[in-house]
Amino acid sequence: MNVTGDDVRAHALSLPQTTEQFAWGMPIFRVAGKLFVTLPEDETSMAVRCPILDRDELVLAEPGKFWIASHESGNPWVRVRLAALDDREELAAIVTDSWRQAAPRALLDAQ
């Protein structure tokens, strides 16, 4: 099953207080004003928030799926190849986790 940028968009926008904008030449998604997903590379990948230690482990474990863009190496972000995702459930888990990292505490507590 191929996961697409439209699948990313649909799931991201289903999460509370999420907005889509266009910046840096790509679609970006914010929760309560904080960035949590971008769709670079013509929407064939996504960048999501991920603690650096976890990110490094993901890249080592599945380099065909995850990688670190050079300009994001010092930041808690990881890139994900959409075609390498197993299914929409995996996509949803990754996007939702990134959303949780960016969402304000009050919004998380209301869930």
Automatic annotation (TrEMBL):
Cross-referenced SUPFAM superfamilies: YjbR-like (SSF142906)
Domain of life: Bacteria
Xref: InterPro entries: YjbR-like_sf, YjbR/MT2646/Rv2570-like
Protein name as catalogued: MmcQ/YjbR family DNA-binding protein
Species whose genome carries this gene: Nocardia alba
